[in-house]
Amino acid sequence: MYKNRTVESLERQKMILSYEEILEALENREIIVDRIAENAIGPCSIDLTLSDTFTVFKTGKLFSPEDREAVKAHSDIVKTNGEPFTLSPGQFVLGQTHERIAISKRLAGTLEGRSSVARLGIVVHAAGLVNPGTGLNKPTRLTLEIFCQLNNPVQLLPGMGIMQILFHQLSSPVTTGYDERPMSQYIGLEQPII
């Protein structure tokens, strides 16, 4: 249960992990990122790259968001085998990180788009929160919502920097991590599913 804490003790706690704290968390396996690039760790985040697997929605099909089976029936998984994926103007797809992630029950992650991608008219969103205990059963790829605001098609390149993840230390570890909750739907993902 929640223990009483003074405002002063809460203010002393870390908010976002720094470069040095991220390195320590990686070493202690509080954070697991497979295939992490040597230069991927920034002052307070880890850069993540785009995989070559996308969920593409069929055009002209009406479906209700509450009918999950209809949504799945009106989409296809496309694997480019390392080749670029062409995103058309106004097109929305699901993508995923190349890296698989796991974080301890003491941390939460937030995902932020990269300004270098946004400046090209590509909006990348990723539901924002990576819950404590995500990937504990099996490290998981993170699903990305990608939209093209440009009037021109743009190529998405597998391996390109697409997102960054920041880590927040919780005031206390959660009892039940994301992967341990019976209602969690997105555990150990290998494809960007709906």
Structural features, described:
The chain has 194 residues and is an alpha+beta fold. It has a single domain, classed as Deoxyuridine 5'-Triphosphate Nucleotidohydrolase, Chain A (Distorted Sandwich), CATH 2.70.40. The protein has 4 helices and 13 strands. It has a 5-stranded antiparallel β-sheet. Strands 2-13-8-10 form a 4-stranded antiparallel β-sheet. The model has no long low-confidence stretch (mean pLDDT 86).
Radius of gyration, in angstroms, nearest whole number: 18 Å
Q: What is the overall silhouette?
A: globular
Q: Which structural category do the helix and sheet elements fall into? A: alpha+beta
CATH class category: Mainly Beta
Report how far the terminal alpha carbons are from each other: 34 Å
CATH topology title: Deoxyuridine 5'-Triphosphate Nucleotidohydrolase, Chain A
How many H/I helical runs?
4
Q: How many structural domains in the coordinates?
A: 1
How much is the average pLDDT?
86
Q: Main β-sheet: number of strands, strand sense, barrel status?
A: 5 strands, antiparallel
Indicate the CATH architecture: Distorted Sandwich
Helical fraction equals 10-25%
* Number of DSSP strand runs: 13
Low-confidence stretches: none
Q: At the fourth CATH level, what is the homologous superfamily?
A: Deoxyuridine triphosphatase (dUTPase)
Quick overview of this protein structure:
The protein is an alpha+beta fold.
Would you spell out the secondary-structure blueprint of this structure?
Blueprint: H1 7-12, H2 19-27, E1 31-33, E2 46-49, E3 53-57, H3 68-73, E4 75-79, E5 85-87, E6 92-96, E7 101-103, E8 107-113, H4 115-118, E9 122-125, E10 129-130, E11 143-148, E12 154-156, E13 161-169
Antiparallel strand pairs: 1-7, 2-13, 3-4, 3-6, 5-12, 6-11, 8-10, 8-13, 9-11
